[in-house]
Design goal:
The chain has about 270 residues and is an alpha/beta fold. Helix content is about 45%, strand content about 15%. A 9-stranded parallel β-sheet has the order 5-4-3-2-1-9-8-7-6. Helix 5 crosses helix 6.
């Protein structure tokens, strides 16, 4: 994989650096593209971007093995409403016209291959995507995707978990060009009861021995309190299911985003 620092990587690193300079972890909200509908998604994304340092947009997929029931249901609803891979990138392109913050797309590899890797990267670059989060792509098994991403100015992010071996942590940390995504718990996405930290500090200590990029933590972060816990040890805080649950419950997403963003401040 090329070691060139891409346009997207530069923008992502700058966002983390700005948050660091302000004494906080970067706030990275997640929302499934096309949820709750393709028509309503832009307003939801605007609300999140009013507080976000970086926005993570989930590309709806029919078999999201790493996602819990909340995001799975959101993907199913978005797909039923006609949000395809190309439509996702169109929605991101529209957001890019209104917002300057970096936008990353979380996608499984099958949608990339369905469109064609080079065509997917071309469309992502045209839409103004800054990076890709690739939850089911081991970085040592398909360097074509990462190389094509870099060729089109996109950063790549891979995931580690508490169950990752030291060798796997090293491999993944060295392969990331955008940021490293550390999963706080073993299992799938979703808001959980209890503390968010668990084995996170030890996992991050190991990852920092090898990572040349910022490290964000997600899975299980659901409110201001859990975001604050994670912000003390991570460079970024990712929150997703809490916002999807808020939409489903008719809650004010903008208010929740502001509250969680406030929790990202360090002591």
């Amino acid at each position: 994989m090329t070691a060139t620092l891409t346009r997207g990587a530069e923008r992502l690193h700058a966002a983390f650096a700005r948050a660091q300079a302000e004494g906080r972890a970067a706030f990275i909200p997640f929302m499934t593209a096309g949820y709750p509908t393709a028509e309503a998604f832009p307003a939801v994304a605007d609300a999140l971007l009013s507080q976000a340092d970086i926005l993570e947009v989930g590309l709806p997929y029919s078999d999201p093995l790493g996602d819990g029931p909340t995001i799975q249901r959101a993907s199913e609803q978005a797909l039923a409403g006609g949000t395809s891979t190309r439509r996702t990138l169109e929605l991101v392109g529209a957001l890019r016209q209104r917002h300057d913050q970096p936008i990353v797309v979380m996608t499984y590899v099958n949608p990339i291959y369905a469109v064609g890797p080079r065509e997917f990267m071309r469309l992502a670059q045209e839409a103004g995507v800054d990076g890709l989060i690739l939850p089911d792509l081991p970085p040592d098994q398909d360097i074509e995707i990462a190389d094509l991403a870099a060729e089109h100015g996109l950063a790549v992010t891979f995931l580690i978990a508490p169950t990752s071996t030291p060798e796997r942590v090293r491999l993944v940390a060295e392969a990331c060009t955008g940021f490293l995504y550390a999963v706080s718990v073993t299992g799938v996405t979703g808001a959980r009861e209890g503390a968010a930290l668990g084995e996170v500090p030890a996992m991050l200590a190991l990852a920092r021995q090898h990572a040349r990029v910022p490290i964000a933590v997600g899975f299980g972060v659901k409110d201001r309190q859990t975001a604050h816990q994670v912000a003390q040890v991570a460079d970024g805080v990712v929150v997703g299911s809490a916002f999807i649950n808020a939409i489903a419950g008719g809650q004010d997403v903008a208010a929740l985003a502001a509250d969680i963003a406030a929790g990202c401040r360090r002591d």
